[in-house]
Write a structure and sequence with these properties.
Radius of gyration: 17 Å
Number of helices: 8
Helix content: 25-40%
Strand order of the largest sheet: 3-4-2-1-14-13
Order of helices and strands: EHEHEEEEEHEHHEHEHEEHEE
Largest sheet: 6 strands, mixed
Shape: globular
Structural class: alpha+beta
């Protein structure tokens, strides 16, 4: 089973690229972030024609997440628990049957947090606390859990092209990285780093200043795995070639192969 995450940065602007990628990469489950679309306007018919079930948690013009899955989900939960006043669409969870039980695939779009020193950074840290609390509850189920998405977190210095450029950014501040480590310390595994110690490995290149051409990138798109999911991990890939497509997103898909079998 192949599970992938991709911040598509606007599904309407990149629906042709999305369809081409689904055909070429052929993920069993795709987690999309920043769809920037209300649920009713999401281009589901084109995707359903490829054999995917479509579940969205959209928002007009901003944010928005989606699960595209070949297996039909048994259960779908929208919104990260812990703050009923949070109106931003950043989280969706699907439960899928596999041989021997079920897996939980969560698609998340963690807040950027810039500019630091504003309520945006406070919201980022609070969101990460809620995510850790949610993750801890899911661990208690002793099921395979995959937390896939755009974390807006650079975990380590070698995950960015120049530490000096990023050291005061919300994506790399010590408080941000400490919050990400708390997730790891609960028992979650960074899928990419579990399968590769290659540096540099990036998943995002800014549109500005020739960052793509110069390979000035950062790694902020992650698949974090519970122990039960990590036990089934076979391989990972960063589909970097997608960044060179026409009208690209500034992110590329990150995928993991697992030895789960459909029920």
């Amino acid at each position: 089973m192949k599970i992938a995450t991709w911040n598509i940065n606007g599904v309407k602007a990149r629906v042709d690229s999305l369809i081409a990628w689904l055909k070429a990469s052929n993920p069993d489950i795709a987690c999309l972030q920043e769809i920037k679309s209300v649920d009713e306007a999401f281009p589901r018919s084109e995707i359903e024609a490829l054999g995917y079930h479509v579940e969205t948690h959209g928002q007009k013009g901003f944010n928005g997440v989606a699960l595209l899955a070949k297996p039909r989900p048994d259960e779908v939960n929208r919104g990260l628990p812990g703050d009923d006043s949070d109106e931003q669409s950043r989280f969706i969870e699907g439960v899928f049957s596999v041989k021997g039980g079920a897996i939980r695939v969560c698609c998340l779009y963690l807040p950027n947090g810039n500019p630091v020193g504003t309520e945006k950074y406070a919201y980022k840290l609070q969101w990460m606390q809620r995510l850790a609390a949610f993750a801890e509850r899911r661990l208690a189920l002793e099921e395979p859990v995959i937390l896939a998405g755009d974390y807006n977190v650079i975990p380590e210095p070698h995950d960015c092209w120049d530490v000096k450029v990023w050291q005061n950014d919300a994506l790399f501040l010590p408080e941000t990285r400490a919050a990400f480590r708390r997730l790891r310390n609960l028992g979650f595994t960074d899928a990419v780093r579990a399968t590769s110690d290659e540096v540099p490995l990036y998943s995002f290149w800014d549109y500005q200043a020739g960052c793509w051409q110069k390979n000035f990138g950062i790694r902020i798109d992650h698949l974090m795995l519970s122990p039960e999911a990590a036990d089934k991990l076979v391989s990972t890939s960063i589909e970097k070639h997608v960044r060179a497509w026409e009208k690209p997103s500034d992110h590329v898909p990150v995928a993991a192969e697992f030895s789960f079998e459909a029920a």
